Amino acid sequence: MTARRIIFMGPPGVGKGTQAQILQDKYSIPQLSTGDMLRAAVAAGSELGKKAKDIMDRGELMPDDLMVSMIEDRISQPDCVNGFILDGFPRTVPQAEALDSMLARKGMDLDRVIQLKVPDEILFDRIRTRAAQSETVRADDNEETLRKRLTVYHAQTVPILPYYEAKGLLHVVDGTMTIEQVTNALVQILETV
Ligand code: AMP
């Protein structure tokens, strides 16, 4: 069996997006980034985008019900029939529970949950580099917002991990390795039965 429905968990700047992009090409399954979807809504100036902008700039989380219906719509698209990589969802225990019942209704299971782990100090270094290197700096790529996003991650997202561990789905990968080493570790996990 090759894993197809995958969740990437980890703090901001850990490399979830980078790895999800590499693996979506390797396995021909889409990366579903709720952060990217929200940034698209902000750029489009939609009602959702207007609401999202302030919340994202403050480093807080969007309401669970909005995020759950956003991901449900996305998972129902034809390109998700062979699987998907969730990047940035679920971020709270209620989101994880809603995802479970949504997948159960569709007769689907999760295959792997992968936690990318990096100490907080290294994330500050990385976010400084990302802000310095990108052409369009994300409004939430600054130290103050990162501090807030990390607090939110530890308080709201980390409590999901025991939930998946109890289901035997959780795998932990050291995110301080090089991009290539992390990809290799992920491939090992995804291709091991
Ligand atoms: P990201 O690009 O995944 O770091 O997400 C950027 C921002 O979008 C987060 O700091 C939140 O404000 C919002 N966001 C993204 N995904 C979620 C989610 N699953 N639940 C709540 N808020 C989210």
Structure write-up:
There is one protein chain. With 193 residues, this protein is of the alpha/beta class. The chain is 56% helix and 12% strand. The protein has 9 helices and 5 strands. It has helices at 16-27, 34-44, 47-58, 64-75, 93-105, 120-133, 143-157, 161-166, 179-191, and strands spanning 5-9, 31-33, 84-87, 112-117, 170-174. Strands 2-3-1-4-5 form a 5-stranded parallel β-sheet, sandwiched between helices. Helix 1 crosses helix 9, helix 2 crosses helix 3 (47-58) and helix 4 (64-75) packs parallel to helix 5. The radius of gyration is 16 Å and the shape is globular. Adenosine monophosphate binds next to helix 2 and helix 3.
List keywords for this structure.
193 residues, alpha/beta, five-stranded parallel sheet, 5 strands, 12% strand, binds adenosine monophosphate
Summed up:
The chain has 9 helices and 5 strands, in the order E-H-E-H-H-H-E-H-E-H-H-H-E-H. The chain has 193 residues and is α/β, with parallel strands linked by helices.
